[in-house]
């Protein structure tokens, strides 16, 4: 994505798009990180051609969280990073609990339980040849940045997803690392959004046809941190956000973490954001449910057209059946329509009769999960909100946005769909001096330049209460 930013200007253009195709080999699911890096280089080449004067003022990298590459003493990658959906972490959380109780771990790191947190990945990898040989651990965006610049660092917002960082201090939780025998020297020094991360190497400039120097700037390298920075919230108006994509990340922005036992029991996480903020949120399975349904139907030769399915789903009976979109049963790939049907049977609800009813079940269930997360975030943090912002790919899904407004009983502002990219380029632009101000000022520029859709809540709130009772009691 190429951003053009000035005091009254904010434009974003897609320069290059490439697939992300995980590979299963010898029973392990890997990211094809070299293919992804090739896509980044192709994207930089295209970005240079798309830039107004053929020059790039800065580059910033964000990606998903928790996964990482291990490097040896010479800086060579020791193998493809393992995908967080791989089964190698099965049982790791239970082994971790034998070292430090979930209550102690949450009080130290504020991170919600996820079976694939970096800490659990390291517990699962203990004694492996790769971890034994490793001298550096680089989270995915830090790995790409290292290959581009030759310089290593650990960006803070992504580091806060490892379950090895103290969200109160913004530094490593050394008692946690010590308890698990994790050598924190594996991690390069911490960087914060806006810090310099080096310059594109001469060989990268040559390969991509770029004129140097091109600085690389640390951004909110966890894509959700960039997406929340890209929420077009109005200054002085308390808001909740739902960053939608494969996952839905729903919560509020705070100045300090919430580390109570009640917060842990509700499975809320405290991840760090841009400008010292805390992203207090819950992970929800998100549009992964719909993506997997589409993939399974296509594999069966049905080849449904998404827009047609969404129109038919809008006409299907609402709240006929719902599932718990946070249930780990939906985490692995495969057989998603069948698993949704099985959950409906298990909870005594009607089974979807066709693809449209399955899609409506998915979207009703996501809206219900958004409702629970927004309500719980307010209750646990004491931070009341007036509006819900939906950003990311789900902002394009008008039915999902409308259902979320109805479920939450709050106005929903939808957009931008590319919030992570906007948050990324705004942090870069501020570091380069193209814009000034705090997050409120950056968001004001977003609000002034982006088309947004507004949805007011309608319908019977009691129907949502009854649907929630069907799965939560």
TrEMBL record:
Q: Which GO terms describe its biological process?
A: D-xylose metabolic process; rhamnose catabolic process
Residues annotated as domain Carbohydrate kinase FGGY C-terminal = 240-432
Cite the GO molecular-function annotations of the record: ATP binding; rhamnulokinase activity
* Residue span(s) of domain Carbohydrate kinase FGGY N-terminal: 30-229
Q: Which UniProt keywords apply?
A: ATP-binding, Carbohydrate metabolism, Kinase, Nucleotide-binding, Rhamnose metabolism, Transferase, Xylose metabolism
Q: Which Pfam families match?
A: FGGY_C, FGGY_N
The UniProt family comment states: Belongs to the FGGY kinase family.
According to UniProt, the name of this protein is: Rhamnulokinase
Q: Which organism is it from?
A: Streptomyces taklimakanensis
């Amino acid at each position: 994505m190429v951003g053009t930013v000035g005091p009254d200007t904010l434009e974003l253009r897609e320069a290059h798009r490439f697939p992300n195709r995980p590979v299963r080999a010898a029973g392990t699911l890997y990211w094809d990180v070299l293919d992804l890096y090739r896509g980044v280089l192709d994207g930089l080449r295209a970005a240079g051609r798309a830039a107004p004067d053929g020059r790039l003022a800065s580059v910033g990298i964000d990606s998903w969280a928790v996964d990482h590459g291990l490097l040896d003493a010479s800086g060579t990658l020791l193998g493809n990073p393992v995908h967080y959906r791989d089964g190698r972490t099965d049982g790791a959380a239970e082994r971790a609990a034998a070292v430090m109780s979930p209550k102690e771990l949450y009080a130290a790191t504020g991170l919600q339980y996820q079976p694939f947190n970096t800490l659990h990945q390291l517990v699962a990898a203990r004694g492996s040849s790769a971890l034994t040989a490793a001298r550096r651990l680089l989270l995915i965006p830090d790995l790409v940045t290292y290959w581009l610049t030759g310089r290593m660092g650990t960006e803070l917002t992504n580091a806060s997803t490892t379950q090895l960082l103290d969200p109160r201090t913004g530094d490593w939780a050394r008692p946690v690392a010590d308890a698990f025998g994790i050598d924190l020297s594996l991690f390069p020094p911490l960087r914060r959004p806006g810090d310099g991360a080096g310059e594109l190497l001469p060989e990268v400039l040559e390969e991509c046809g770029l004129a140097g120097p091109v600085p690389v700037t640390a951004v909110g390298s966890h894509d959700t941190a960039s997406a929340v920075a890209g929420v077009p919230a109005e200054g002085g108006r308390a808001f909740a956000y739902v960053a939608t994509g494969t996952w839905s990340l729903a919560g509020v922005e705070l100045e300090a973490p919430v580390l109570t036992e009640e917060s842990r029991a509700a499975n809320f996480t405290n991840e760090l954001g841009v400008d010292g903020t805390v992203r207090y949120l819950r992970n929800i399975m998100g549009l992964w449910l719909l993506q997997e349904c589409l993939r399974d139907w296509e594999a069966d030769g049905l080849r449904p057209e998404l827009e047609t399915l969404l129109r038919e789903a809008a006409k299907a009976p609402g709240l006929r059946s719902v599932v718990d979109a946070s249930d780990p049963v939906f985490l692995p790939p495969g057989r998603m329509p069948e698993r949704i049907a099985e959950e409906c049977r298990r909870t005594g609800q009607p089974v979807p009769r066709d693809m449209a009813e399955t899609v409506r079940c998915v979207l009703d269930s996501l809206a219900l999960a958004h409702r629970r997360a927004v309500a719980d975030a307010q209750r646990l943090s004491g931070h009341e909100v007036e509006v819900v912002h939906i950003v990311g790919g789900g902002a394009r899904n008008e039915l999902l946005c409308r259902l979320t407004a109805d479920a939450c009983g709050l106005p929903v502002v939808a957009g931008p769909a590319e919030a992570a990219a906007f948050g990324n380029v705004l942090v870069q632009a501020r570091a380069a001096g193209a814009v000034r101000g705090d997050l409120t000022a950056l968001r004001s520029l977003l609000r002034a330049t982006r088309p947004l859709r507004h949805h007011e809540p309608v319908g019977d709130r009691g129907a949502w209460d009854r649907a929630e009772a069907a799965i939560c009691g």
